[in-house]
Amino acid sequence: MKVLRKFLLIFVFLLCIVTPFFATASYAISGAPNVEITEWEMMWEADPTSTVQNAASSARAGDWQPFSYGEKLPVKPVNIQSAWLRFQLPDYDLARPALLISRLTAKDVSIFIDNKLVYESKRNYPFNKNEIILSVTENEANHMVYILLHTDSSWLGLKKSIIVGEQQSLSTLFMKKEMFDVFIGASLLIISLAMLLCFIFLNKSYLEGLNSLCVIIFSIGLMILTTSPYLHMVYKDYGFELYFMFDIGSNLLMPSVFFFFEKIFGRGPFGLITGFRKLLVAMSTILITLSFCSLIFEEITSYYKIISTLTFGVIIILGNILLLVFLIRLCLQRNKEAIIITVGFCVFAGIGVLEVIWYFVENKNYDLFLWKWGIFSFIAALIVILARRILLNYEQVVSYSKQLEVFNNELQRSEKMEIISQLAASVAHEVRNPLQVTRGFLQLLGEKSTSDKEKGYMALAIDELDRASEIITDFLTFAKPQLDNTTILNIAEEIKKIEAILVPLATMQGGVIKVDLSSDLYVRGNSSKLKQALINIIKNSIEALHTDGVIIIRAYQDGSQNVVICIKDNGEGMNETDLKKLGEPYYSKKTKGTGLGLMVTFRIIEIMQGKVEFFSTKGVGTEAIIHIPVAKK
């Protein structure tokens, strides 16, 4: 609610700024072209209380110096704070005549026509830019205009020609030129507030960096907006408040920049970024406090102006040097975020340097304005870095979520297997003994039976008892998978033995087995258990074959000191759902399958400190890849 209230206040403030632009009244204009006054006279004034009558007296006629548009401002004599300008109005025939006086450098300005004061601007803050639109009458044509200038700085004078024309035309011309700063500043303010409102709904872990970015954009916008001569002309009664707002923006800028850098790049070498940021926060707090006090106690205003000016300059210079050195160091380390922000900063600095060079090429008769566009490149770089950091964090969260899902699945599988192990260990022994007794009596009955039909029944019953015994054996292997009597196994020899056993089965299924085995591959394990694990996988491949089926078995050593066994077939394959269920108990696609075979295979390979992975495409085939640590012979 508080944020919304602040946003509405800023919106009303910006609305008040642009209202005069749209509120210009319409009058009939003469259509006469504008007239430029390119020559005037200037006289230094040692007495700031001097009157226009004294300046216009013949006694001081020799003190006036002629000047023309394009000439440099004169060097102000020592201990002189005031000067007079004068020029003669041309003959004009206008409906609503007016003067446009641009780039007039002075803090206080008083304008006299016919020895009468027609305009006065006195400022209690150090702002020396003046843009003035002054209405004149038809009777004042060809009259002399006297302008009294006063300043506390080193420069006084007029840098641009004076234009005489229709007031509405001059107002439009003035708006087109001076609304640029207002547009940029107001745009940055609105963007920063809009971003702040959007960031409220983001994760709190991002807020510190995002808020500092908003403050950076807000402070730059506020500084550009409050230095616009347009505001100081339209709202000249609130000039000190505008100057105060500029100070607030300048005091917020560098601490927020360092805070942003600290959140993105860390504390910096020897904690310099953090230390300088704390120093900036302390200094800015003191300066903002002093600025508030200067609003109440005028006695400290002059001291505050000196302190704030010096402090702002020192902070900008030292802060930029520290950031530049820090960025160069990070760029040499190939930090992508540092490279991005360095590019943005270099574009901004490059535009600024080129403009300054052109400013001197044009003998200082050039308004610096492109740097304000360049600052967008710096802000854009900051936004790109923050967006990139958010995306990286999001990708990291997604990755962690996937890993957590895998861990949860593994935990559930582990708990399920533990329950089955306990159940298998307790039940298998109790069931196997009665089965063996039953099998023995069935054999005796079969031998004594004289009926072929009864013998067939006995044989079928014995086969089923043997199948039940095999299932129990699988249960026991799963429940107690310890590898007794482990030795160093030659993988090539073990696979060749398995090939000899399974080739007839593959031939009956209409397929072939091809092997490609590297020599000198050794692992530690139990030969019978390893054979059991591999036979389970290869038998599944054989049973999945169609006509012209092929099973390729390869064995080699990878770069991670593992023996890799690949068993690939071109059978019917499986979909993603079936792949995820492989190794689960009681899951099988075979008619009489129990799913215990692969479950035992997973268990044996796991005890050998290896892992099994399956890859399959429906209608293409399946590939099983087994990784087992290498053992030294």
Fill in the keyword field for this structure.
4 domains; single chain; Helix Hairpins; six-stranded antiparallel sheet; Jelly Rolls; 633 residues; rod-shaped; alpha+beta; 57% helix
3D structure, described in words:
With 633 residues, the protein is of the alpha+beta class. The protein folds into four domains: 31-160, Jelly Rolls; 203-383, no CATH class; 404-479, Helix Hairpins; 487-629, Histidine kinase-like ATPase, C-terminal domain (Heat Shock Protein 90, 2-Layer Sandwich), CATH 3.30.565.10. The protein has helices at 2-22, 52-56, 167-199, 204-226, 229-234, 239-265, 272-296, 301-332, 336-361, 370-448, 452-479, 491-508, 527-543, 576-581, 596-607, and strands at 35-37, 39-45, 65-68, 82-88, 97-105, 108-113, 116-121, 129-135, 144-150, 157-158, 162-166, 487-490, 511-517, 522-525, 549-557, 562-569, 611-617, 621-629. The strands form four sheets. Strands 3-2-4-9-6-7 form a six-stranded antiparallel β-sheet. Strands 1, 5, 8, 10 and 11 form a five-stranded antiparallel β-sheet that branches. It has a five-stranded mixed β-sheet with strand order 13-15-16-18-17, with helices on one face. The model is unreliable at 6-10 and 17-28 (pLDDT under 50).
In short:
The protein has 633 residues and is an alpha+beta fold. The protein contains 15 helices and 18 strands.
Please render the helix and strand layout as text:
Blueprint: H1 2-22, E1 35-37, E2 39-45, H2 52-56, E3 65-68, E4 82-88, E5 97-105, E6 108-113, E7 116-121, E8 129-135, E9 144-150, E10 157-158, E11 162-166, H3 167-199, H4 204-226, H5 229-234, H6 239-265, H7 272-296, H8 301-332, H9 336-361, H10 370-448, H11 452-479, E12 487-490, H12 491-508, E13 511-517, E14 522-525, H13 527-543, E15 549-557, E16 562-569, H14 576-581, H15 596-607, E17 611-617, E18 621-629
Helix pairs in contact: 1-3, 3-4, 4-6, 4-10, 6-7, 6-8, 7-8, 8-9, 9-10, 10-11, 11-15, 12-13, 13-15
